Amino acid sequence: MKFIGKFFLILLLILLLLLVAAWFALKSTWGAGTLSRWISDDTAYHLSIGRIRHSLSSPLVVTLEDFTFGNDGQPAMVVASKVTLGLSLLQFSDPSHFDSLRLSDGEIDLGNIRPGTGFPLQANHLYLNNINVVQPDISNSYQANETTAEITPWKPSQSQMLGNNYSFHIGIGQLMLGQQHLANISARGSVTPQKLMLDNVNGDAERGTFSGSAIHEADRWQIRQLNLQNTRFQTSKSLPELLAPLEQHDIQPGQVSVSHATIVGPDWAVTDLNLQLNNPQIPDSTLLVGGGKLSLQASDFVWGTQEFTQPQVTMEQTSQGLNISNFTTHWVNGTVTANGTWSSDSRQLAVDNLSLTGLEYTLPEDWRQFWQAPLPDWLDSVLIRDFTINNSLVIDINPNFPFQMTALHATGNQLLLAQNQQWGIWSGDSEWQAAEATFNRQDIRAPWLKLHADARGISINDFKMLVNKGPMVGSAQISQQPSRNFSVNLRGQSVPVNMFSNWGWPVTSVTGQGNLTLNATGSLQAGKPLAPTVNGSLSIATDAGTVQQTMQSGNIQ
Predict the structure, then answer these.
(1) Helix/strand/coil percent split, the chain, to 5
(2) What is the per-residue pLDDT across 434-475, written as a single tens digit (0 to 9) for each?
(3) Distances (CA, A) of 528 to 14, 120, 440, 508, 523
């Protein structure tokens, strides 16, 4: 028995000496190199370790220095000056599972991970300390520098570097997200197979700051809270493209607050934007419906060639649609104010009050095409219950028929300007007057008219103006039918006898001043020429005699 006891004692001493020898060997440069070659030769990975450090005072901690790791045939996916391994009893049954793993001062290049291989280690806790993380994927590129993080637990899979069920706390010094530069990022959250939760995220963005929380679930972001302050950034997207994720339900905003932000796009820009958005419900349309509120102010908003100064608006969602209040902006040297509602059932925009003051507006070249184009799907009709225009200037520079109205004043009520997604003057009453006007190089003064529209047509029963010093009065009717048949009657005293030549009537043989009577009919069908449809008569009386002309299909008989 003594012999057996001595044998096992000697065997234990030998094992202890071997362990001590192995301990000292592994701590040497030779031992680190041997371990590196063994793993590199016998696995699908390559490993390089400069030195292994271990202290008996911390027996469950192993430190690897000058660490490099990657897939065979690929550049290194992990490079670190130091890797600290926290051991546990689980190592006896699962050697690749550690209590903790800490990477310090290095880089993780996700582009160097061979698809389908994953990472061969696991840990209860993964720590990153001053690590640069690079994702070169063109469609989802980013680079996170000076990254610190804690991932609990860390169980990577072949498809997920961090696993699919963990909590995290991460800090990033510098982040390039595509072309967007962010800094000083801090985020807390968790990941499950079905959901990503960002409980708290904040950082610096383009000389400003941001903070918030969000949930990503079923390919959709729910922004629970988002605060942006003093941000400045550029985008290559048009405004509809930038807002498309809202319409497509990719993003559902909650509490959003924006302060003093500036955004510049290819053909649009907004400066000093202040916005409050509270819990909007976004249906299958481009407008908000259901129970939220939007308040917006800005210094300037540029859309194409149009600039709106100090725009502000408040919109509140209801079960019926959208209430729009306190809309005001400075535009083309004037002021626009309005309020109204939008109905989700009828898709009608009803403007209760619209006021235009001091505008100096030049109509765009394509305004006629715009007038004939159908409205978007979310808008079927436009009703203006009450409107005023004060001291404004309207100019059309179209070379075929330019016109201008100076010191324009107008009032109107119950004007239906669109129905069945088509612009027009479908019903309502209005009164128009100007100090001066020019229609295709014919100057007139003090034009004034009253307009009434209903289902049958547009009636101008009372029309007055001065041409030189002579008065001219008249009336006109335009049918609401697609043919747009019209009739017009004009009577002038002591007016230029050839004034109608600027409006399409041939020049007569007489000159000077005289009394005129014009009666004409025709058709204003969209996309078809006017002249061949015109029939009418012109009577001219001067001191030298009278002239009678008759027109048929645009030609003088």
Answers:
(1) 15, 60, 25
(2) 999 999 989 999 999 999 999 999 999 889 999 988 999 999
(3) 107, 74, 20, 27, 9
pLDDT at residue 111, as a whole number: 84
Give the integer Cα–Cα distance in Å for 533 and 552. 8
Q: In percent, how much of the chain has pLDDT > 90?
A: 53
Count the alpha carbons within 13 Å of 314 in the hemisphere toward its beta carbon: 2
Polymer length of the chain: 557
Distance CA 27, CA 4 (A): 34
For residue 535, how far is the Cα from the chain centroid?
51
Task: Give dist(CA 338, CA 355) in Å, integer.
Answer: 6
Residue 251's alpha-carbon distances to 127, 180, 273, 280, 500, in angstroms, are 31, 19, 20, 11, 59
> pLDDT tens digit string along 517-530?
999 999 998 778 88
pLDDT score, position 7: 41
Q: How many CB atoms lie within 10 A of CB 384?
A: 21
Strand partners, 472: 465, 492
What is the maximal distance between C-alpha atoms in the chain?
155
User: Which of the 8 DSSP states describes residue 135?
Assistant: E
Q: What is the dihedral of CA 416, 420, 424, 429, to 10 degrees?
A: -20
Pick from 438, 425, 357: which is nearest to 395 by CA? 438
Question: Mapping DSSP to helix (H, G, I), strand (E, B) and coil, where does residue 28 land?
Answer: coil
Going by C-alpha positions, the residue among 66, 10, 69, 83 that lies closest to residue 40 is 69
By CB atoms closer than 10 A (0-12, 13-18, 19+), residue 124 is middle
> How many CB atoms neighbour CB 433 within 10 A?
19
Residues 428 and 454 sit within 8 Å (Cβ to Cβ): no
End-to-end Cα spacing for the chain: 143
Domain ranges of the chain: 1-193, 332-454, 456-557
Collapsed DSSP state (helix, strand, coil) of residue 265: coil
Buried b vs exposed e over 177-214: b needs ≥16 C-beta within 10 Å?
Answer: eeeeebbebebbbebeeeeebbeebbbbbbebbbebbb
Q: If DSSP states are collapsed to H, E and C, what string results for 291-350? A: CCEEEEECCEEEECCEEEEEEEEEEEECCCEEEEEEEEEEECCEEEEEEEEEECCCCEEE
At 139 the three-state DSSP class reads helix
Which residue has 């690590």 as its token pair? 131
Rounded CA gap, 356 and 392, in Å? 8
Q: Where are the alpha helices (DSSP H) in 27-72?
A: 29-42
Asked if 419 and 453 count as a contact pair (C-beta separation under 8 A), the reply is no
> Which residues, listed in sequence order, are joined to residue 67 by a DSSP beta bridge?
80
> CA–CA distance from 342 to each of 233, 247, 280, 318, 499 (Å)?
32, 17, 15, 10, 45
Banded model confidence at residue 405, pLDDT cuts 50, 70, 90: very high
Q: Which two tokens stand for residue 239?
A: 């405004």
Q: Is the peptide bond before 153 cis (omega within 30 degrees of 0)?
A: yes
Cα→Cα distances 128→82, 112, 132, 133, 138, Å: 11, 18, 9, 10, 25
